[in-house]
Amino acid sequence: MDSMAGVDSVAAFAIFAAVLTVTPGLDTMLVLRTTALTGRRAGLGAVTGIALGCMVWAVASALGVTAVLATSRVAFEVLRIAGVAYLCWLGGRALWPGRRATDDAVALDELASMVDPGGSRAFRTGLTTNLLNPKVGVFYLSVMPQFLPVGMNPLAGSLTLGAVHVAEGLVWLSLVVLAVNRAREWLTRPVVKRRLEQLTGIAFIGFGLRLAFERAPR
User: What is the distance between the alpha carbons of residues 42 and 20, in angstroms, rounded to a whole number?
Assistant: First the structure.
């Protein structure tokens, strides 16, 4: 394998993946909400779960498992429906306190019961959100082959590119956690906190509806 060509391919993928990583989306919104409501530790828990979910998809893609999603409409639809239901559930759960609460104390009590300062719940949410999103798997399956270094073992090449994408995600989302954590004093004001929950609830439902209309690959 031409080492320079290999480096160029990885660098090109790193630039492409970096642009996608910093583009605001579901992961960024999830990390922002978790950090604002619960703090840095929980935010980093969500980041870790998201990274692990991406790594699982990357490995599955490298092993050819996600080829099933690209060729089987049934497999794609089952995972898509599960993902839609989960995102809408997250959105509804976030919106519910804001709709019911009649005073700030009640709102904060309900919001506090939904988060976990230790980060384990945030980790599970980040992991589940990614594992139930078939678009992540299809992304790895359709994009990675275009950047694989010529002459490199496909498995090793796919894992390398997957590691690059996961590393970029870890760095970017960790920066989001640090930035949001510095602004927590403002973000945790009762009115701001409730509005943030409403905004993220709407965003989660929006992402779910967008996934609901996603077509299975032909």
Answer: 24
- Summarised one tens digit per residue, pLDDT across range 29-42 is 889 888 988 889 99
Work out the number of other CB atoms within 10 angstroms of the CB of residue 11: 12
Q: Output phi, psi for 90, to 5 deg.
A: -60, -45
Whether residue 141 contacts residue 66, with contact meaning beta carbons closer than 8 Å, is answered with yes
Each domain of the chain, given as residue ranges in start order, spans 3-212
**Taking the C-alpha atoms of 208, 210, 211 and 212 in order, what is their torsion angle to the nearest 10 degrees?**
80
pLDDT digit string, tens, across residues 72-105: 777 777 777 887 887 787 778 777 754 444 444 4
d(CA 61, CA 55): 10
Please give the DSSP secondary-structure letter assigned to residue 213.
Answer: T
- For residue 81, the one-letter residue type is I
